[in-house]
Amino acid sequence: MSDALTTEIRVAELPSPALGEWGWRDLVTLCKPRVVLVMLVCALVGMALAQPVLPSPAVVLYGLAGIGLTACGAAAFNHVVDRRLDAMMLRTSRRPLAARRMPGSIALAWATLLSLAGLALLVWQVNALTAWLTLGSLIGYALVYTAFLKHATPQNIVIGGVAGAAPPLLGWTAVTGQVGPEPLLLVLIIFAWTPPHFWALALHKRDEYARAGVPMLPVTHGEAFTRLQVWLYGWLTVAVTLLPFAIGMSGALYLVGVMALNMRFMVWNYRVWRGQDPKAPLAAFWFSIRYILGLFGVLLLDHYAQAWSLWMAPGIQ
Ligand code: HEM
Ligand SMILES: CC(C)=CCC/C(C)=C/CC/C(C)=C/COP(=O)(O)OP(=O)(O)O
């Protein structure tokens, strides 16, 4: 019997409620709410950076609701597509579909409803460009990454990372109706950050991915190679995080803040690379989330600090 099958049977043997015994909490779980929340922070910062003055409350409200609902829909589609795979891995086996609490048809209807509501809100209250780009992220994550790339190549999360990296661009276009170099730079930061973020977790969960037959990098290329990639992509992340200062988009406050974050980020990535502390990959994964939140927080602080000093400058009111 294959290892993957053994795992599936072991999970299936866990006591689980009968199909149909799902509740509203399961509908929330399908949305991956914590991931979506961090994405919304990134989208909000994209909105704020798009202009020196505060964005209109209506754009912020409708924009975040539209992007958030669609991202929730994308996450719910991911649960539907991945339900058999999720059942094979301990980390994901308690999810509503994997644990067979909820019928797939309900989750599919929920995913469709959320996505349509989000996209409709963007078309109706924000702008068509933001709706199209958000639809692109939805397809990129729910279909291209989940249904295809995840099973096809260890570069799955690098390519799929483009979809997850989109929120600051979506926030920016919600306010301006245009794509620009600045929001693309913010996308590049999340894009470069995704491999250290995910491969740190994949190192910790290597055996689960191997048993489930998912070609994640530590499974296909080994742990030492993946640890090196975390270190190298860490440096790439550091390099691209300096670009907002280099092109004059952000100021000294950002530079100081991001240097402090980068130092801690690289300490964790170094520990992952050296491979001597078995707890380092999981700790590095959790730090990566604080890092990306901190980075977008510092971008926001710096932006309003700059805007404030402009307003305060004599002769400019
Ligand atoms: C393709 C790109 C990405 C991949 C493959 C990925 C992968 C993962 C995985 C496997 C988890 C663990 C989830 C769990 O245990 O339920 C996770 C957690 C998380 N990710 Fe990512 N991620 C990606 C992009 C992002 C982005 C763009 C953000 C935010 C900007 C993000 C924020 C988070 C957060 C906040 C968590 C913690 C969730 C929790 O506390 O349950 N991720 N990520
Ligand atoms: C419209 C828009 C902005 C869409 C964004 C879509 C979105 C919610 C991306 C989340 C990224 C993520 C958690 C990937 C992990 O997927 P995984 O399936 O490899 O992880 P899992 O094993 O925990 O399910």
From TrEMBL:
<comment type="function">
    <text>Converts heme B (protoheme IX) to heme O by substitution of the vinyl group on carbon 2 of heme B porphyrin ring with a hydroxyethyl farnesyl side group.</text>
</comment>
<protein>
    <recommendedName>
        <fullName>Protoheme IX farnesyltransferase</fullName>
        <ecNumber>2.5.1.141</ecNumber>
    </recommendedName>
</protein>
<dbReference type="GO" id="GO:0048034">
    <property type="term" value="P:heme O biosynthetic process"/>
</dbReference>
<dbReference type="Pfam" id="PF01040">
    <property type="entry name" value="UbiA"/>
</dbReference>
<feature type="transmembrane region" description="Helical">
    <location>
        <begin position="156"/>
        <end position="177"/>
    </location>
</feature>
<feature type="transmembrane region" description="Helical">
    <location>
        <begin position="282"/>
        <end position="301"/>
    </location>
</feature>
<keyword id="KW-0808">Transferase</keyword>
<feature type="transmembrane region" description="Helical">
    <location>
        <begin position="224"/>
        <end position="246"/>
    </location>
</feature>
<dbReference type="InterPro" id="IPR030470">
    <property type="entry name" value="UbiA_prenylTrfase_CS"/>
</dbReference>
<feature type="transmembrane region" description="Helical">
    <location>
        <begin position="102"/>
        <end position="124"/>
    </location>
</feature>
<dbReference type="GO" id="GO:0005886">
    <property type="term" value="C:plasma membrane"/>
</dbReference>
<keyword id="KW-1003">Cell membrane</keyword>
<comment type="similarity">
    <text>Belongs to the UbiA prenyltransferase family. Protoheme IX farnesyltransferase subfamily.</text>
</comment>
<keyword id="KW-0350">Heme biosynthesis</keyword>
<feature type="transmembrane region" description="Helical">
    <location>
        <begin position="35"/>
        <end position="54"/>
    </location>
</feature>
<feature type="transmembrane region" description="Helical">
    <location>
        <begin position="60"/>
        <end position="81"/>
    </location>
</feature>
<keyword id="KW-0472">Membrane</keyword>
<feature type="transmembrane region" description="Helical">
    <location>
        <begin position="130"/>
        <end position="149"/>
    </location>
</feature>
<keyword id="KW-1133">Transmembrane helix</keyword>
<keyword id="KW-0812">Transmembrane</keyword>
<dbReference type="InterPro" id="IPR044878">
    <property type="entry name" value="UbiA_sf"/>
</dbReference>
<comment type="pathway">
    <text>Porphyrin-containing compound metabolism; heme O biosynthesis; heme O from protoheme: step 1/1.</text>
</comment>
<dbReference type="InterPro" id="IPR006369">
    <property type="entry name" value="Protohaem_IX_farnesylTrfase"/>
</dbReference>
<dbReference type="GO" id="GO:0008495">
    <property type="term" value="F:protoheme IX farnesyltransferase activity"/>
</dbReference>
<dbReference type="InterPro" id="IPR000537">
    <property type="entry name" value="UbiA_prenyltransferase"/>
</dbReference>
<feature type="transmembrane region" description="Helical">
    <location>
        <begin position="183"/>
        <end position="203"/>
    </location>
</feature>
